[in-house]
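Notebook, p. 212. Picked up where the previous page left off. The plan for this session was modest: take the two constructs that came back from the sequencing core last week, fold each one, and keep the raw output in the notebook itself so nobody has to go hunting through shared drives later. Recording the first one now, exactly as returned: residue sequence, then the structure token string.
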Amino acid sequence: MSTPDDTADETFEENRHDQLTSAPDATEADAAPRVDVSEHDGNTRIDIRDDAEVRPGPGPGMPEADGED
């Protein structure tokens, strides 16, 4: 178990990885990046990665995802 002093030197990505892989059945894939963040002309853009395992919106088999109404 880590203490606040242990995590002071860890980066955000290291802390994120540790948290997402600490569950009993967690895998490395659970800590895979899901978004890309970039800045353009002072605006922050957040894009869902094409290879993200989990994506927002209706899931497969849902009428909205299949283009059915």
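Okay, moving on. Second construct, recorded in the same format:
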Amino acid sequence: MVEGQVRWRGWRVALILWLLGCSWLLSGCMLISGEQTTISLQEGAANILTTFVSAEGSDEYRLAVMPASSEAQAIVMVAVESGDMQIELIQPDGAVALVLASRPGAQVTRSGPIRSDEQGQIRYRLTARSARNGEIQIFVLP
């Protein structure tokens, strides 16, 4: 009887360690349900709009929306019905140019300069915690 309990305890510990390892691997992932994204590009300007039903996790995105190695003005808006959503615009050197965090039930807006990399891409990171019924919009203006 004691040997069976020790064996069961060993399996429980192994299962817990495996689940912790899986959660560590998924920590850089973003799970978004009901996502719809539209991107509109016109003469050096861009409008990126993403709506979603729910979001959890963190991920980084890259979009080619500007001429290579150029600077523009970004206007960022985020709104969620509940939970938390944060967006960070990231410069080509990895520095964070702008951070915007949501407030449940309200739209939050912020603007600032952003630079594109050698491929004309802008980078941004989204982080969500139990975010529901949200919207993220990024305007890039020359």
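Notes on construct two before I forget. Confidence is low (pLDDT under 50) at residues 22-27.
Flagging for discussion at group meeting.
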